Amino acid sequence: MTSEPLLPGDPATGPEPAAPAEVVTRLRAELERLRDLAATTAVLERAKGVLMAVTGCAPDAAHEELLRRAEEGHRSLVEQCWLTLGALPPPHERPDRPAPPPPPASAGAGAQESVPRRTGDAAEVLEALGRALVPVGSPHELAGCLLDRLAPEVAADAVLLYERLPEDGLALIGHAGVEAALAAQWRHVPPLPGLPALEALRSGRPRWLERPAEDRTRHLLIGPPERWLTRAWLPVPEGGTARVALGVLRRRDAPFTPCERELLRAVARLCAGRLRAFDGPRDTGAGDVSRTAQTVFDALPGQAVLLTPLRAASGEVTDYRIAAATPEATDVFGRAGRDLVGKHLLDNYPAVAGAPLWRGCLRALETGVPYESEPFAYHDATVPTPVTATYTVRAAPLGEGLVVTWLRYDPEDRQEQRLADVQRLGNLGWANWNLLTGEIAWAAQTYTVLGRRADQPPLPLERLPDLARPEDTRQLARAITGLVSRGDPLDVPFRTETAAGVRHLRMVAEAVTAPDGTPVEVHGFVQDLTAQRSAELALVESERAMLLQRGTLQAERALAARLQHALLPLPSKPVRLAGLRVEVAYLPAQAGIHVGGDWFSAVELPDCDALFVVGDVAGHGIDSVATMAQLRFTAKGMVSTGSSLTGALERLNQLLLNSRDGQITATMVLARYDPDRQVLAWAQAGHPPPLLVRRGEVRFLDRPVGILLGATGAPVYESLELRLEPGDRLLLYTDGLVERPGEGLGAGFARLAEAVRAHGRGESGSLDALLAAMLADERRDDVCVLDIRLPLEELHDAAAPAEADA
């Protein structure tokens, strides 16, 4: 791939044209300095123009007055200029002028209609106009500002600004109140006789056209004569000459009054300073900018140019001028470097106008964001043999211009670029050794792979083992010997030490032999396999870690199973306790280690009562299991030794508060059944309510007062009693039976009641069927259920009561 400067032309070779960042920064700083100098000149000219308009003095006198005021106020000249522009002296401080004489009687009837303006009023108009002209940035804007201010003062309907050309013609540089078609028709005016604007510039005196009938025959009028009946053309003074004429056109058929004439003369003087401000950057700084830019571009490698936009009076970019070019920059005519400076873009490449490239450059100028085109085909018909090639272009804003670089993609370049891309992406580099002549050729990527600098000479084939680590040197040297002596193919991995660490490399090579079989040339490549080898080692390490983790998990599962069996043994079939039929189900969560904080107890007490407990410790893991075991055995022990249900809950609450910094909570249901009275007394601590099935009806018991264990140091627990009837079924369960993600507890309770109606009514109701209906999906929490039933008839022939608790 080769780079080209400006637009497609003859192919050129060389490095890719990318201006170094530090060089561009240096050029930008120099341009900013020159721009500041130009801005300072512009401010000075504006301030001089204001003083000229207000006081009527000459440019040199205005400059001296600014210096005097700056010295008296102990200010810099620039500060005084900005002070003059921002705070003009009030009217009473300006020199008084005699009132103008009344208009002559021959001026016509229309003159009697004009009211003479007082000098103070004119000064106020000029002051306001001076302030309005400060932000104006072009002659076109100047004309619009003048029309806005002069329309109410002198009945102006249009304002024209014409610049005198070197060949004595006129060019329209600004206009307002004139339609675009008429402005385009009169944009360039040749030096014809009877042209009032040109006469005013040649004589240095205003031309007042106030007699429409005579003016049509004596003068060449710009625009329709019947549209503007009176006109004034005033030279804008610049020392002893004038190059710009100010035209004020009116529909009013009346002469200009003396006050209006004096006002327009002052306006012309005011415009002189503003127009010089426009020219300041071009006259005082453009040449310096171009010279500075060219000096920098002379030191840049590759091909690049600096383009400055050429604008019409409306501000529209009409072309670009080459302001600076690098020595390697060329165009289709063979011009290069400094020979390109001053040439216009569209002179050589007219087809570019309006193309995407043109629009992209305009966007870069307007937004300040660099533009980079997609590859595009350009048919170059200006060269002797027209060709079509593919290009890309980049345009970066720099000051008021653009730094532009071009890339041309030739078939050979594309092939070389593809080869370079393959080597870069594959992290390999080719190498060639001529065994007869000793010539060695390495690709640039080969130096990178071997960790050598580009300025170091390539190594002979027999010295490559010097780069390998000692343990790999012998293997590589043996393979190279076989390649050079017998022509044996070579494919050897080896490691080398670099500043970045150890690299894992692979060398693949083959020999080109003479007719007698003697190797005469070796070509091959060296590939960096460090990333691949690191990935392989990481994979082996990951597999080792996975096997270790698998063993750890298996051990933990086995330990959890033994712990579960030791702490919470499950009966294999329903048992009898105090005349009740009791069935137990415990289902651990389906994820993680199958052990958690849910537990149950169903045991016959010494006084033949039965104790039932269902609890749930928050969380999972060994800590929860330990807390579960502590609560389970403590609760059973306290009730067995005579503690009340509520008293046991209060002590268990205090136990949790005093252990593990009070960070563990639990819920629980404690129930004690008296078989003689067939009464079940129960209390709860933040636990879901038991479910009672009686004579086909399903309902949840109202819970007595009780907050979960470990939540507060001053809990209140109450108990209730329930008389069981033959055929009753009571379910005690943990929240894992009813809770589902994204579902409220109310919905879970309703689902449990419906499942019991469908699968659990009567003595034939199956606990397994109930659990299958409730736990069809994956379980995220443990589930513990006590199914307690009072049979319809006592089974006296049953075995002795058994415990469902270890």
Salient structural properties:
single chain, 806 residues, alpha+beta, seven-stranded antiparallel sheet, six-stranded antiparallel sheet, 20 helices, 29 strands, elongated, disordered N terminus
Question: How is this structure best described in words?
Answer:
By secondary structure, this protein is of the alpha+beta class. It is 38% helix and 25% strand. The strands form 5 sheets. Strands 1, 8, 9, 10, 11, 12 and 13 form a 7-stranded antiparallel beta sheet that branches. Strands 4-3-2-7-6-5 form a 6-stranded antiparallel beta sheet, sandwiched between helices. Helix 1 packs across helix 2 (59-72), helix 1 (21-55) packs antiparallel against helix 10 (258-298) and helix 6 runs antiparallel to helix 10. The protein is elongated and about 140 Å long. Mean pLDDT is 80; it is low at 1-20, 87-120, 280-288 and 795-800.
Main sheet? 7 strands, antiparallel
Radius of gyration: 51 Å
| Relative helix content | 25-40%
Please, what is the average pLDDT? 80
| Sequence stretches where pLDDT stays below 50 over 5 or more residues | 1-20, 87-120, 280-288, 795-800
What does the overall shape look like? elongated
**Content of β-strand:** 15-25%
**Structural class by SSE content:** alpha+beta
Question: What is the end-to-end distance?
Answer: 85 Å
Count the beta strands. 29
**What's the total helix number?**
20
What oligomeric assembly is this protein in?
single chain
